[in-house]
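Researcher: Go.
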Amino acid sequence: MTEEILTELEVKTVNNDSGLFIGNTIREAWKIFKADWISIYAVFILPWILVAAYSFAQSAFKIEQGTTAYWVWYVAYILLSMVLGMGVTNAFLSITRGKKITAETFTSMLPRVFNYLAAQFLMTLIIFGGFILFIIPGFIFSIKYMFTPYLIIDKGMGPVEALKASGKLTDGIKWDLVGFMAVIIILMYSGILALFVGLLVTIPVMIVACVVLYNMLISRQK
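Model: Structure:
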């Protein structure tokens, strides 16, 4: 059922006159998922494993809220979660590029945490400011800067540099990106309608599709 949904979406988007070949992006993501679903799921569940490990350790060591030990443990967990989350994105980049995932895929993210945090803060300010103004600018800014985290993770850019680079990547194709995000939303709702079981496929495919799209835009800049 999920494959039929993806095929139907692909046909609709390929026949769309938008210049971003959304259908090709979905097709490539589905192809990668079918070829390497084991690696994709292994990477996908890592954050959930960390959450479970954190909860278990907190209970096992009886760390009480409000204590110094609790705050040290909590800050360490937040930092590790951020590094792991960035590493997961980096791992998906490796999968879509046919590269091996190693420990360095994750550890190399540690020096980029500050830039990542700073970029997220700037993005929040810009997008929130856009929504306060007239709402529509908020949507425009969210599309314009959507690849900022990828550029920091993939290219090691600084926050301002990544924001500018994301603006260049999305220049002239913002409506195409709106269409792409609409397809992603349809995929998610399709997974929900399939008794939530479909989400086990649609969410990973959605993530891979976003990475594939980023790869396509990056290659177009070369």
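Model: Residues 1-19 have pLDDT under 50 and may be disordered.
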